[in-house]
Every structure is written in C-alpha cells, then in structure tokens.
Write a structure and sequence with these properties.
Elements: H1 10-13, H2 24-36, E1 41-44, H3 51-58, E2 62-67, H4 70-82, E3 89-91, E4 105-110, H5 121-133, E5 135-145, E6 158-163, E7 167-176, E8 179-189, E9 194-204, H6 208-218, E10 222-226, E11 242-247
Parallel strand pairs: 1-2, 1-4, 2-3, 4-5
Antiparallel strand pairs: 5-11, 6-7, 7-8, 8-9, 10-11
Helix pairs in contact: 5-6
C-alpha cells in the first residue's frame, strides 16, 4: 500500500495556476507527437489535478484519467467541472492499471515526474509493464520531468517557483543515494491569509540511461529522449527537461 502523500498538498497544488493556463510549447509538443503516432484515444494514468486532461481534451483527443491519490482526483473533478468538461476519472495505482481500465489506448501519459514516486526497480518495472499492457500495438508512453543532469547540480538546489503579492512557493532539494527529498515551502501572505505550510516527498532520481534500460526491460521497442518541447535531443550538460516517448 502506497501512502497518499498528496492528501494535504492537493488543495494547494494548483497555486501553480489553473489547469486552463496552458503551456503553449508543451501543447504543441504533445500534438506533434500524437499526430506522428496516429493517437486518438489517451489514458493519463497519473492525472493529478487535471492539467494534461484539459490540454489533451481541448486538442480534440478522447481522454480518460486516473490517479492513486483520491485527494488529487477530488480537486481534478472540481477543476474539470469548473471548465464544463466531463472526463471519466478513476482511482487506481498505475502499477495495476488492468484492474480498472479494460480498454487499450493509443497513448498513455505519466507526466510531471509521477513515475519517480516508485522507489524500487521492481515497482518501476511493474508500473511500466502495466502502462505497456494498456497500449495498442505501436502505441506510445509519454513521460515528462524537470529533473535532469543539469538541474541536479548543487547550484539549483533552491528554486523559488512562485512569488507574487499573495503567495510564494520555494523548493529545497536534498540529494542522497539515488533519491531527492523535495521539500516544498508554501507561504501565504495575502490580506486574508497569513500561513506557512511544508510538504515533503521522496523521489527516485531517474535519468536518460535509467529510462532506456527500464523501458527496454518493460518491453518497449523504441525509446526517444528529448530535452525540451522543441524536440531537441536530451543533452546531459544543458537540458532543463527530460521527456520520454516510448513505443510499444
């Protein structure tokens, strides 16, 4: 049984911004990849508060979503209702997708470093195999993260990711033995709310060679790694993102 580390964080998670605040470069990337592989039906197996459900739905693709965290799904449902969107949502551990999703899809999404919540090779392989089994032949798994060789350097240990007149969010990362402990400090400093909250999560460090080996062992025949949404190849010395597209 995996602890729901988002049970408290979920209600504040979207201080990042509304799900309708679309990153145009990310949207263009997703659309280009989907067109390349003929994607029509999509499963987001770690949908969180619904950002990528919203993006993919708005692009006209058929998408469903699931997440392990019931708290994140509650927020996701409210976000989608606010946008007037009805997307099927289910609670499921992405290591066991077959227990909930019977259909197969042209693409499975596991975005924003969601896979790094798996701490052992056995769980990583189990999750990737589960995603593999939900794909149609030649279907694709897409994963994204902001952890790269570059961002793991010590000078990027502190990140002020949000700072406005009402709210600030600071990330502090401690790296040890193949993991990063991400400490998130949320500071509310508006005229109506003056409060500080801390959330912590332990994430497995997975880089280019890790993904290549794990995905091959999970059965994927082709793995492409990008360092940005412009589809430039991942580079260890200067890539700020690590984007994986693996084909069944």
């Amino acid at each position: 049984m995996v602890k729901d580390i988002y049970s408290d964080f979920a209600k504040d998670y979207d201080q990042f911004g509304s799900i309708s605040d679309i990153d145009q470069k990310e949207q263009a990337f997703i659309n280009k990849v989907f067109q390349k592989y003929g994607v029509k039906q999509v499963l987001d197996c770690a949908c969180g508060t619904g950002k990528h459900l919203y993006i993919v739905h708005k692009m006209g693709f058929d998408i469903v979503g699931s997440d392990y965290s019931s708290s994140m799904l509650d927020v996701c449902q409210k976000n989608l209702m606010k946008e007037g969107i009805n997307i099927p949502l289910k609670q499921v551990d992405y290591r066991y997708l077959e227990n909930t999703w019977n259909q197969k899809y042209d693409a499975v999404l596991c975005m924003t470093q969601a896979i790094a919540h798996m701490h052992t090779k056995d769980d990583l392989i189990k999750a990737m195999k589960s995603m593999y089994k939900r794909l149609n032949m030649n279907g694709i798994l897409v994963m994204t993260q902001g952890t790269t060789h570059l961002t793991l350097q010590n000078q990027f240990r502190f990140s002020l990711v949000i700072n406005n007149q009402d709210f600030s969010r600071l990330y502090v990362r401690d790296i040890e033995d193949g993991f990063q402990m991400v400490n998130i400090l949320d500071i509310f400093h508006s005229t109506t709310k003056n409060e500080m909250k801390k959330h912590s999560m332990k994430l497995k460090i997975l880089l280019d060679d890790d993904f290549k080996c794990l995905l091959k062992e999970a059965g994927f025949k082709k793995v492409e790694l990008y360092g940005d949404y412009q589809m430039n190849s991942y580079q260890k010395d200067n890539s700020w993102k690590l984007i994986v597209v693996a084909q069944k």
